[in-house]
Design goal:
300 residues; alpha/beta; Purple Acid Phosphatase, chain A, domain 2; 5-stranded mixed beta sheet; 6 helices; 20% helix; globular
Length: 300
């Protein structure tokens, strides 16, 4: 008999874990809005559409939203590859030397009506870039405003890192009944050009945390939602199906516009963004999830 020993070296995984306790009654439904890739600060950002979504979330008593990163465009003159002063939003003009603070204030202005419904803020590559290369900590400043506190701990609206596990723990009123929905969310990376490549990216991500019912990924500005192969579990003497869904989370910036100078996305030949974000409707009493794609026809 031959014995084979395999030594596996393990490393710590620095993923933020956020827990949210929620009380519900039958037949309450909750809607999760993953909002990211806003890129406020350039004329290509559809601020009006974003404000409509904010108003919808504010009105819904059972709405939750997760920030998916890239809240401001955060491109500065030192970024020779992407900087284009002619595409700055009107409210940015005259603030070319104060890009980070001006954009974080505008993000706070638009999102402030719904900070109380935010379950966390993921950090995007644009948020990280302005910190690393210009020494302006965009995420720290945004978390200060979201939590109305200058220093951590930020427990009202927590920092979610570049990726996070979000556990929504639903407790039924006047009952011991409880349900949990586990969400794996990541800002994302890469430069996939085709819909198939973007779908594959989020499908691969869904295999990272196999017990996550929902996988969310941003960065690529699409809303692809590949079918995840049905999983089977053995639990308490029974075999059960384990349903899950995965989706990219859209964007609020047009890659192409008429009548204005082109931005870096058009110059690079990136595909048009899918404006808006998907809605995920959760009915904890029935343990059901529904993915609703919400995309707006663009007028270029």
């Amino acid at each position: 008999m031959i014995q084979l020993f395999v030594l596996i070296e393990t490393k710590e995984v620095f993923t933020e874990v956020i827990k949210k306790e929620l009380d519900y009654s039958r037949p309450d439904k909750w809607t999760l809005y993953p909002i990211g890739d806003i890129h406020l600060g350039v004329v290509h950002c559809d601020e009006d559409l974003l404000k409509e979504e904010v108003a919808k979330i504010k009105k819904d008593p059972h709405a939750l939203w997760l920030g998916m990163g890239d809240y401001g465009d955060c491109i500065t003159p030192s970024d020779f590859k992407r900087w284009e002063g002619r595409i700055l939003a009107k409210w940015m003009q005259g603030n070319e030397d104060n890009i980070g603070p001006t954009q974080v204030d505008k993000v706070d202005e638009i999102l402030s009506p719904i900070w109380d419904k935010c379950v966390g803020l993921i950090e995007g590559n644009h948020d990280e870039g302005i910190r690393r290369y210009t020494h302006f900590d965009f995420m720290k400043e945004l978390l200060k405003r979201a939590n109305h506190k200058k220093e951590p701990p930020w427990d009202k609206v927590p920092y979610a890192g570049p990726s996070c596990i979000l556990a929504l723990n639903f407790h039924r009123n006047n009952s011991n009944d409880a349900r949990q929905v586990v969400i794996h969310a990541r800002h994302g990376e890469g430069a996939a050009r085709t819909s198939g490549a973007r779908a594959l990216a989020v499908l691969r991500l869904s295999q990272t945390f196999i017990n996550a019912q929902i996988t969310l990924m941003g960065h690529l500005h699409g809303q692809e939602s590949p079918d995840i192969p049905q999983r089977m579990l053995y639990r308490n003497g029974k075999i059960k199906s384990y349903e899950s869904l995965a989706t990219m989370t859209g964007a609020w910036i047009r890659a192409y516009m008429q009548g204005v100078p082109p931005m870096y996305l058009e110059r690079w030949g990136s595909p048009p963004s899918v404006l808006g974000c998907p809605h995920i409707v959760l009915e904890p009493d029935k343990e059901s999830m529904e993915l609703r794609k919400c995309r707006k026809v663009q007028t270029l």
